[in-house]
Design brief:
The complex is a heterodimer.
Chain A: E1 3-6, E2 16-22, E3 29-30, E4 35-40, E5 45-49, E6 54-59, E7 66-68, E8 72-77, H1 83-91, H2 97-100, H3 116-124, H4 143-152, H5 170-182, H6 185-188, H7 196-203, H8 217-232, E9 235-243, H9 245-258, H10 267-278, E10 287-289, E11 294-296, E12 302-307, E13 316-321, H11 329-344, H12 350-353, E14 358-362, E15 381-385, E16 389-395, E17 398-412, H13 418-433
Parallel strand pairs in A: 12-14, 14-15
Antiparallel strand pairs in A: 1-8, 2-4, 2-7, 3-6, 4-5, 6-8, 9-17, 10-11, 12-13, 15-17, 16-17
Chain B: E1 6-10, H1 11-25, E2 29-33, H2 49-53, E3 58-60, H3 65-77, E4 81-88, H4 96-102, H5 106-109, E5 119-123, H6 139-142, E6 149-151, H7 156-168, E7 173-177, E8 185-189, E9 201-204, E10 209-213, H8 216-229, E11 235-239, E12 242-244, H9 248-258, E13 261-268, H10 273-284, E14 294-298, H11 307-313, H12 317-327
Parallel strand pairs in B: 2-3, 2-4, 4-5, 5-7, 6-7, 10-11, 10-13, 13-14
Antiparallel strand pairs in B: 1-8, 6-12, 9-11
Helix pairs in contact in B: 1-7, 3-4, 8-12, 9-10
The chains are: A alpha+beta, B alpha/beta.
Chain lengths: ~450, ~325
């Protein structure tokens, strides 16, 4: 039986991918583990391995094209395949799985198994909030109405259909557009969802010296996800100052002793450890809003925001330290360093970026005093750290010179209230100002 | 462009003019069939042709469709270009083997040695109270066969231009006339013209719903278009002119404009030109459709004899209008 390769889901948020380059051509022999293509997702360009031995009998999506996750992109014929069965596979594209299949239903009825890469990727993303509707309540929308709503930037979910079984049809979309124009939208709960990309193009006047930069997949993803975050999550911020002197002192000592082992702990490693340990007493900081309930995640998977150099296209990725509550400083340090190095050279794989439950963004190395960050959905909080600045401080009623760092939590008020936020920050502050606790 | 000299003639005259002009132009063209010569044709389509072309080129045949259809195929293989008149396409069923099993496959099975340039023509569809066996719409049945071309004109102008193209075509052409249209009058220029196959005509331009129609149904669809205009529904009526080749491009472009499609096909619905159009539109215009393609066909029963039942059996203006309203969610 020939094996169909489909566009894999290489990140939690990936909906489509672009084949940047095929490393094989039709007729080439491949074996399990071979990297057959480079795929650009919304986050990065990643390598796509195969998990079967065989011959590439057909390439169905040429390089440069973007296709949705689940779209068949190539066929591998394994020993004994005949031409007929290959045609049969090519002619029966697998349904795009993730979105349309109810979570509790049987797997899609297809003779071809989905490539295991997409299976493992979706399994690892199970921590993210499930938002799959069951068939019983699935909204019916005519293809034309769906397309028109998309073009007009109207959410079909907010339109009541007048067709059979409540199907949303063309006239319903036109009526909704009229209502939006006349400003009567709020009374019926219509939602305008113009994409950030679309809304910007219409209004920007272009001067003589201007030039245009085409959006990479990552830039589009950043735009989409952060607009979604800022416009749907009720953000608020809480800031606290930490006395960094004990931590800096401990760090200097440890780094001197660890130098022969080529280990160099960063301030950020301590912050990751401090945040992870504080979770034990504050489980709501390791949680996700799921519409009708809140999900408390067991493991603390801490996302660390990493900016990419311009030669890799710039942008931002979030590398994930899994089960950070179980990891010591040494492990946190080496793992973070490896992830950052990988992000800036080869690019992170899906496993490296999936499943964050809490995120830390640190601009201290740039001398920033403080800033606020936007929550990385489906997280409920993100910590924005500034630099440990040497400055006049009051200690024991004395004005002295010391190091202080400002840390600002951005929080989802649906999950975390102000007092809870302050208590968590106090725990983090205690861990940082008494850094010996981080060693055990 | 010079202004053509128009005059009004009947559908049957348009068909005859086409045949006569082509017979004057090409000595290989001949006409054969039951009563086509001395009786001037059962429906007077070939009036005067025996006088002009003589009994060697306008031939009365016995009542034996299988025999003379087969003879025509032999003649075509040997270099002639026969036109075969079936008094009714219903009678062509006894000639199924020559017209379906020989003519369309000749070029293929002879490895390109023998073509089969024949026009089979005759009345198709219910003539009016002729009963089940004489009221066939063969387009569903015969359009299924690869190797043929199928023409279904709706008016005198198209009938003439398409017939001339049919006679010059090197493949077997099934030319479906309608007893109900033979007396239809329409403007036809004196000057010669040909209408290529596979080019639909926008019989009526509109913005809300595309009505794809074949042959006589086009005229009923046009009536419906005028009627629905009063309800504020703007119909675009496509006269397909030929079923094979089917002008998919015109259908797709129109449906992409209107977002709705109704097919009117007088043959039975199962496995028909109408179902083919529906499949095409669903495949090519999926994201442009506000509703599924609605289809109007003859009822899935043998044609009734009773006048009132026959009227209800055939696609009629009321059923087409209901389909358009339903397709636009206006019913």
């Amino acid at each position: 039986m020939p094996v169909q390769l489909t566009m894999p889901r290489l990140s939690d948020t990936m909906e489509a991918g672009t084949i940047v380059r095929w490393n094989v051509k039709e007729g080439d022999t491949v074996s399990s583990g071979d990297v057959v293509a480079d795929v650009e997702t919304d986050k990065a360009t990643m390598e796509m391995p195969v998990f079967d031995d065989g011959v590439i009998s057909k390439i169905m999506v040429e390089a440069g094209r973007q296709v949705p996750v689940g779209t068949p992109i190539a066929i591998i014929s394994v020993d004994g395949d005949d031409a007929g069965s290959i045609v049969a596979v090519a002619g029966a594209p697998v349904a795009v799985a993730a979105k349309s299949v109810p979570i509790n239903s049987a797997p899609a009825k297809t003779a071809v198994a989905a490539p295991s890469v997409s299976a493992s990727a979706s399994a690892s993303s199970s921590a993210s909030a499930p938002s799959v509707q069951s068939d019983a309540v699935r909204q019916r929308v005519s293809p034309l109405a769906r397309r028109m709503a998309e073009e007009m930037g109207i959410s079909v979910a907010s339109i009541v259909g007048s067709g059979p079984s409540g199907r949303v049809v063309k006239q319903d979309v036109l009526a909704a557009a009229e209502l939006l124009k006349s400003g009567g939208a709020r009374s019926v709960g219509l939602v305008h969802v113009a994409s950030p990309v679309q809304s910007a193009t219409a209004v920007v006047p272009i001067g003589a010296g201007a030039s245009e930069v085409m959006l990479s997949g990552m830039r589009q993803a950043i735009a989409r996800r952060l607009v979604e975050s800022k416009s749907t999550i009720p953000h608020y911020q809480v800031t606290m100052r930490f006395n960094m002197d004990p931590l800096l002192e401990l760090r200097t000592m440890l780094n001197a002793q660890l130098e022969p082992q080529k280990i160099k702990l960063s301030v950020n490693d301590f912050i990751v450890r401090a945040c992870a340990l504080a979770m034990a007493a504050h489980p709501f900081f390791n949680a996700s809003w799921a519409g009708d309930r809140i999900i408390l995640h067991g493991d603390v998977n801490i996302g660390v925001a990493i900016s990419l150099p311009m030669e890799r296209g710039g942008g931002l990725v979030v590398a994930v330290l899994k089960q950070a509550q179980r990891k010591g400083l040494r492990e946190i340090s080496t793992e973070t360093r490896a992830l950052a190095e990988k992000a800036r050279t080869r690019g992170l794989g899906p496993e490296d970026m999936a499943g964050a439950t809490f995120t830390i963004s640190n601009l201290g190395m740039f001398g920033v005093d403080n800033f606020t960050a936007i929550i990385n959905p489906p997280n409920s909080a993100i910590l924005a750290c500034g630099a440990a600045v040497e400055q006049p401080v009051v200690r024991n009623h004395q004005l002295v010179v010391g190091h202080e760092m400002q840390a600002t939590l951005s929080l989802d008020h649906r999950v975390i209230d102000g007092a809870m936020a302050s208590e968590y920050l106090q725990s983090v502050k205690h861990n940082i100002e008494n850094p010996a606790t981080l060693l055990v | 462009m010079s202004i053509a000299t128009m005059r009004e003639i009947e559908f049957r005259d348009a068909v005859r003019e086409a045949m006569s002009e082509e017979m004057r132009r090409d000595m290989r063209v001949m006409l054969m069939g039951e009563e086509v010569a001395q009786y001037n044709g059962a429906y007077k389509v070939s009036r005067g042709m025996l006088d002009e072309f003589g009994p060697r080129r306008v031939i009365d045949t016995p009542i034996s469709e299988s025999g003379f259809a087969g003879m025509a195929i032999g003649a075509a293989m040997m270099g002639l270009r026969p036109i075969v008149e079936f008094m009714s396409w219903s009678f062509s069923l006894v000639a199924a083997d020559p017209i379906l099993n020989n003519a369309p496959k000749m070029l293929y099975m002879s490895g390109g040695q023998f073509g089969c340039p024949i026009v089979f023509r005759g009345n198709d569809g219910a003539g009016g109270q002729l009963g089940s066996t004489h009221s066939w719409s063969v387009e569903g049945l015969f359009s299924n066969v690869p190797g043929i071309k199928m023409v279904i004109p709706s008016n005198p102008y198209d009938a003439k231009g398409l017939m001339k193209t049919a006679i010059r075509d090197d493949d077997p052409v099934f030319f479906l006339e309608s007893e109900r249209l033979l007396s239809m009058r329409g403007e036809v220029p004196e000057e010669e013209y040909l209408i290529p196959f596979g080019q639909a005509r926008i019989a009526r331009a509109g913005t809300d719903c595309t009505i794809v129609a074949f042959g006589r149904m086009v005229n009923i669809a046009l009536e419906v278009g005028m009627e629905l205009e009063k309800e504020g529904i703007s119909c675009e009526v496509l006269d397909m002119r030929t079923i094979r080749p089917l002008d998919a491009g015109s259908i797709i472009r129109s449906v992409k404009r209107t977002g709705a499609c109704v097919v009117v096909d007088q043959s039975w619905s199962f496995g028909s030109p109408g179902s083919e159009v529906a499949a095409l539109v669903h495949r090519e215009c999926f994201d442009d459709l506000d509703n599924y393609v609605h289809r109007v066909h003859s009822a899935d029963v043998p044609a009734p004899y009773a006048h009132n039942l026959e009227q209800e059996y055939l696609p009629n203006a009321r059923r087409i209008a209901e389909a358009v309203r339903s397709c636009l969610y206006r019913s």
